[in-house]
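QA checklist item 7 of 12: single-chain prediction sanity check.
[x] sequence parsed
[x] length recorded as 404
[x] structure emitted
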Amino acid sequence: MSPRALASDIPRGFSFAATACGLKKSGLDLALLVSESSAAAAAVFTKNLVRAAPVLVSEHHLRAARHKMRGVIVNSGNANCCTGASGVAKAATTASKVAREIGRLYPSQILVCSTGVIGVPLRSEKIARAVPALARTRSANPTAFAKFTRAIMTTDTRPKWAAAKYRIGGKQVRILGCTKCAGMIQPNMATMLAFLATDAAIAPALLSRALRRAVARTFNAISVDGDTSTNDTVILLANGQSGGRKITRDDADYRRFCHTIESVCKSLALAIVADGEGAHRVIEIEVCGASSERAAGQIARTIANSPLVKTALAGADPNWGRILAAAGRSGAAFDPKRVEISLAGTCVCRSGREHPFHERAVHRKMLAKYVPIIVDLHAGRAQARMWTCDFTGEYVRINASYRT
């Protein structure tokens, strides 16, 4: 993949814009995504009981517009969360402003997203002043998309995007996505926003099913620090401008669509983990031989969120005992005497006891940017996979001074 999207990556009928409206101390902080025609829309939101105003407004708009949308307005620098009725009103007013500037749309055709500091009133007047120029300057060129990817960032060190193409009946279908996130990452989503656009034609119900499936296997299979945020949103818009036939049933074309969406989401999810706050390496945790998928997922999640495991990984320390101990406190039943653990391709534990290995050699392997861990319970056929990253001192530094 090139460092920036190409013109051929941009789905037909979508445009982007970004600007600096002053919510952040410096840099781009307001972004706009527009479908030039009505698009089927699907979204997945945070499961945190504390839900930001833009999440509440976007959920309402999806229902009111029967999952037919025209655009998304996104600000960074302020989460507009824990801001009461005033915050909800500001999110709704922002949608109304965008709807008018794009072209006499219903406010419910616009989704709203925010990311940043929680509990600080949103200076929505700054957004309102910037929206007219933002709407006028939207473009389908890669430069506009690149600015969009930067405007949604908070503690991210780099933009994150992915693209894919496939064919339906001789017509090329494009899928383009981007995301922001580097901390407060835990399954059930993270402090993350993700935006996906495709020129595929697909029924809204099938679109929602495809997105939920993809999120379950990608964004909900990553963790940096075990925290679930308040603003988490993944949005997928499909405007049908590719000219390919409309997907209306679960057939080969739909399965190809699902596979492609999941592929893009996985690329974005792994990019989030790789850019985890202070992270040095990505860790893939595979739990296999489990009695059920639920048990496998429970164990994988507990290992991924263990501070002791993650700090050992920061030091490339092959301390497999921490991994087994984390599995043991997961709440899932298994026989420790049957467990086998491999670190970076080397078996270090067999039958619940140390299997002889060259510690220095495994240490060197664990210094890689991508480190696989396999935990085989030898209790069944179920398996689960999660991705996480190591914990370093830099994570503490970033989060100790986030507001200031």
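[x] summary fact logged: DSSP finds eleven helices and 15 strands in the chain.
[ ] second reviewer sign-off
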